[in-house]
Amino acid sequence: MIKENLETVKKNIAAACEKAGRDPGEVTLIAVSKTKPVEMLKEAYDAGVRDFGENRVQELVEKYDQMPGDVRWHLIGHLQTNKVKYIVDKVCMIHSVDSLKLAKEISSQAVKHNVTVDILLEVNVAEEETKFGTSSEGAVELAKEVSKLPGINIRGLMTVAPYVVDPEENRQVFVALSKLAVDITPFLRDNHNVVLSMGMSNDYQVAVTEGATCVRVGTGIFGERDYGKI
Ligand SMILES: *Cc1c(COP(=O)(O)O)cnc(C)c1O
Fold it and tell me: How many Å apart are CA 13 and CA 204, to the nearest integer?
């Protein structure tokens, strides 16, 4: 099932790229495996997936130990400062940096572990009260401050769009994030390859047509999540 789902998602990404005149090679598919057992991650791995997304530090660390070493782990959920130390040398990217306090802790742990950590600033574009993320206005100032810290490398922006029935409703959110990315480029070391992490199972095709370079797909690959089990 996972293999077939992956093929469908990849086909949909390719179709969205075609529509937008983009090269599918610009889009990284992150398989969001939160709540799913390692056997399912291995199945995805065998089908070629190397980018996995997890929300919780403990779950990421547990799965990290059980999966092959060439997996690229993306921390996509809210991160508490006291947990940074457990993952700073394990993740390929932290998508959810939304405060200077958190960025400072990542920086100091990165220096301690002698690594550089790629991060994205999470922006609450739709200004939903229930969501994490800096405001759009705050993102540029945050980028400016974070860019001064050692051991931390801002690669771009991430957003979690609202839950909507019609994915077209989120197009404006993706357009807004993509515009905001232009404003933060002066604070990026690599300002030619700005990362835009946007789009989930429900709306990744729309996100790709608006410039997403990372889509985070869980349900569309692994099926519905059962939160009752954890
Ligand atoms: C769970 C989650 C996803 C994946 O959601 P699906 O709708 O299952 O694709 C993507 N991004 C974040 C931040 C998530 O927490």
Answer: 8
